[in-house]
Design brief:
With 175 residues, this protein is an all-alpha fold. It has one domain (3-171). The protein is built from 8 helices and no strands. The chain has helices spanning 3-22, 27-44, 53-72, 78-91, 96-120, 130-134, 137-146, 154-171. It is elongated, with a radius of gyration of 18 Å.
């Protein structure tokens, strides 16, 4: 696995945890990944096996342009868009479509579960209903960290899909 792959996995783990807990993708982490990746890509051009610089830069641009319309329509947070652009920079444009497809399928499944849970909630015993669980201190802390932000943790789905893509392309599909 390349240094950019390891950087991507580290970033993905941090983003997934933050997005699941607080529905936030900190700009500082995205900027740090770019600050580490760009010099590495430039220096690698001087080595015997250079990284394809154009593929990584094109990945960043395509990642930004692909999800920006969803943000402009208020269907997605800006952090998700910026994170996808950074993934494009780290992994190259070839990773974007498979990562986007897997993340979107996961988000669709998430939406289906939310709808089903709202339909089934009145039929559940009181101990299994959401109001019962909302009193738990850990859930209250998580809700407070989210500061009213709602929605699916799409950056988490992007992160997990990117880790999966990296593992499959590095080690192959066979276990």
């Amino acid at each position: 696995m390349t240094l950019l792959g390891l950087l991507a996995i580290g970033l993905c783990l941090r983003v997934a945890i933050s997005d699941l807990y607080a529905r936030r993708v900190p700009n500082a982490w995205l900027l740090a990944a770019c600050v580490l990746a760009l010099p590495w890509l430039l220096v690698s051009q001087l080595t015997a096996t250079p990284q394809p610089l154009a593929a990584h830069l094109l990945g960043a641009v395509l990642g930004l342009l692909a999800l920006l319309p969803f943000h402009l329509l208020r269907m997605m947070g800006a952090g998700d868009v910026k994170f996808f652009a950074v993934l494009g920079l780290l992994l190259g444009w070839q990773a974007l479509l498979p990562v986007w497809i897997v993340a979107s399928l996961a988000a669709g499944l998430h939406a289906g579960i939310v709808v089903a849970s709202r339909l089934l909630a009145p039929r559940l015993p009181a101990t299994l209903q959401a109001q019962h669980w909302q009193a738990h201190p850990a859930l209250r802390d998580m809700q407070q960290a989210r500061q009213g932000r709602t929605g699916a943790p799409y950056a988490s789905y992007l992160a997990l899909a990117a880790i999966g893509w990296l593992l499959v392309t590095t080690y192959g599909g066979a276990a």
